[in-house]
């Protein structure tokens, strides 16, 4: 852009250029583009081959910090036929896109960084101009580096202002159940694919009532107080490691999901008393099923994540990956195979999607694709299950495990304002 | 980037045009008569400006005329190629309604300036008649110098005395009301071009010919230029508040009129586009504030290495060297527009942060939700946080500093103050059915195309660790409590994981008010559109066996799919910085 603020300068420094002189001028183009056929890449499937994909990108880096008090996409419409009751494909309260610090939210006002943001059109029957159809739109970037914070956390026994159906009030003393969920708002429904690296550490407490529970009294109580962990954790209070082989990768996918779950989470316990005895015998691994309302999760980290995108489409579409190679090939080329904290960088936890240059098929409707999201180092130092009978705790011994419903993850909501307000 | 046909002086003309309106039409030599005015001289100017009144207005561009972005090969490690894009035939006309003088027509210029007749109306037709009151004399476009009240970057009030203004801006203001009009163009997106742009017929890359129609208006929009007030960054600044409302369509299919009349894939040749096909947005209402007067603005700069790249930035509201926790100044208070004192807090918050932003956001959300009980929420806030009711009020500035974008008119509301849950035996009347074309976002097939299969599945989680149970819920097996709230999964067919042909639920009262979910009662039926398709279940790409019935994947086979309505509320851009990559070394 040329600033013409001074007439004298304007007259003395600029001269008219003729066409021949202009022909020699070549500036950079702000936009870049690409066309990818749905059948040309490795792993082409019936959700990619009917389409050609046209990309338009901005040739640059975008840094962004923004807040949205409400994000609702795909409310009503065709996906009512999928789940009926849920209102929107994506419904999130208090969304913040910001920077990150490790796997947590960065400082207030820090920016998320999108490298070469682009838009992509899925075109069907592209070879026949009278039958050419716009099928879907994808908005993505080559890489995304930042943090998406969501929701609000309550710390007192008050009404949850954002939810008056399920879990409408907060019980700050609760360790599990609707009283926990009542202390959180945020992710109401999510549609998409989240390839999640998950880890958590909890100090599990319970009274195991060997002789049962009679009129609320625990008979023959055996105290349980132990640190349990799963996945790759950073803290040293637990026994979980920090290597790729210690990771727990969970592929979450679907439309209008409201709960996030993990079955057969293997918790490694370390503690005193009976736990110490079990630990000495190498029998300190127990199993748990985690079923949590998505509201309890207040953020996801994206660490140079490739193929993070938001799309909407009329039918299932497998969009090509930005790199146009498979995740496994990409990690191999970058020397990250066996190192990167991603299921596709392993040989024993990779699935078919790791060997396709096309993303997981996106459902009809709105779709959030985050193949390398981090939900790690979730930490709760006071997870009290209260009185449990022996029969209650038997599922700990084998998969799918002891059901822990709506546990308190103790995730904090990141601040993103100047001054003292959390949200603005 | 402008075409080679534009002279460099016209770049400066374009900048001047934003300031001087009609003077852009004068030859270069006239600029020698103009002198720069300083603020003191400008302050003597009162009510000066240019009004642009247009009645019975239409702007037609020949469909072969175009603007072009000529690309270059990108630098660095990327899979992208050079992009060349052309926008043809930009026109502003009336929204065709089929009445005399406002029949629609297409791009093909079959009768000189006007193309073949359009058989439809509205978004079916790219071009129409004249617009009776585009910007009438009593509500025109206005270009003027002005000194509005505002805040400096440091929070100082500016222009508090209209007789002694501190700062002046140049502003271009749209009419406050306008009829809906049709802004349309067709375009070409070309990837990987190798030939010179002087001869578009050779060396072309892969390209897509499309059409874009916007039928609405931008009434209330305002564009301002001023000097930024950030210390050390007192540079040229732009502020743009965009109000946009109406309908939108993006399409690619060309009309099939038989042999010799079935379109063209030759670059630069205008065609008739199919009147039905494409992506549609109906009932859009959006406000996007880019920058705020004086204290937040779009600024331009060069990349420090001076390699030809540029930076487009909305700077931070505070110098990053100053702690973010420092108290707000008046400009920040204007930006945040809290409805309650900033100190309103949850005393148990371990981080010591406050709740003013959450309460403000919720109050604003309710004020934009039809049927909401705002008083109930205010009463709750007053009693919970001890704030006098009269002190709970959303400042007017909130609607200037927070943007929104709404596509359609139905959004389930949950929480205190929301409208009563919809009851009865039918869906809420504004809740779009699967093939609605009147509201929200929908895709439609082309006239001669086959119906397509809409499909979605609902897996909850897949544990990819070897030897662990992999499951899909609801449905599947041993799902326990993995059941969506609202209805019983057992009432669903196909294990509750795929589309249902029909379903219904009647919301109750009291504790049963949300048994159908936050959307309330519903009754849906895809009728004969519901069928089964013999194709791979996407879950198999996760190495999870399909749960589909023997008949195949349940789908809804349709000519139109409505994705529902959407909204973003309370949007604030706190910081933005775009740094281009494309230029090489100078």
Structure summary, number of beta strands of chain A: 21
Q: What best-fitting shape of chain A do the alpha-carbon axes yield?
A: elongated
* β-sheet strand percentage of chain A: over 45%
What is the CA-atom radius of gyration of chain B, in angstroms? 28 Å
What string, H for helix and E for strand, traces the elements of chain B in order? HHEEEEEEEEEEEEEEHHHHEEEEEEEEE
Number of separate structural domains of chain A = 1
User: In terms of structural class, how would the helical and strand content of chain B be classed?
Assistant: mainly beta
Number of strands of chain B: 23
- Give the biggest sheet of chain A: 15 strands, mixed
N- to C-terminal distance of chain B: 18 Å
What does the main sheet of chain B amount to? 15 strands, antiparallel
Regions with little confidence, pLDDT below 50 for 5+ residues of chain A: 1-11
Question: Which two chains have the most extensive interface, and how many residues on each?
Answer: A-B, 159 and 193 residues
Helix content of chain B: under 10%
Give the helix proportion of chain A (percent range).
Answer: under 10%
Mean pLDDT of chain B, as a whole number? 87
Structural class of chain A: mainly beta
Shape category of chain B? globular
Keywords (chain B): Signal
Helix-strand blueprint:
The complex is a heterodimer of chains A (424) and B (586).
Chain A: H1 7-13, H2 19-23, E1 31-37, E2 51-58, E3 60-75, H3 80-83, E4 88-98, E5 100-101, E6 104-105, E7 112-124, E8 133-149, E9 152-153, H4 178-181, E10 184-185, E11 187-209, E12 213-214, E13 217-218, E14 221-230, E15 248-257, E16 259-271, H5 274-280, E17 285-293, E18 299-306, E19 309-313, H6 327-333, E20 365-389, H7 390-393, E21 402-405
Parallel strand pairs in A: 11-20, 17-21
Antiparallel strand pairs in A: 1-2, 2-7, 3-4, 3-7, 4-8, 4-11, 5-6, 7-8, 8-18, 8-19, 9-10, 11-14, 11-15, 12-13, 14-16, 16-17, 18-20, 19-20
Chain B: H1 8-20, H2 39-43, E1 49-52, E2 66-69, E3 81-94, E4 141-146, E5 150-151, E6 157-158, E7 169-173, E8 181-191, E9 206-217, E10 222-227, E11 236-251, E12 278-290, E13 298-302, E14 310-314, H3 330-336, H4 356-367, H5 374-385, H6 398-401, E15 403-407, E16 440-444, E17 452-454, E18 462-463, E19 502-505, E20 522-525, E21 530-533, E22 553-558, E23 560-580
Antiparallel strand pairs in B: 1-4, 2-3, 3-8, 4-7, 5-6, 7-10, 8-9, 9-11, 10-11, 11-12, 11-13, 12-15, 12-16, 13-14, 14-23, 15-23, 16-23, 17-22, 19-20, 21-22
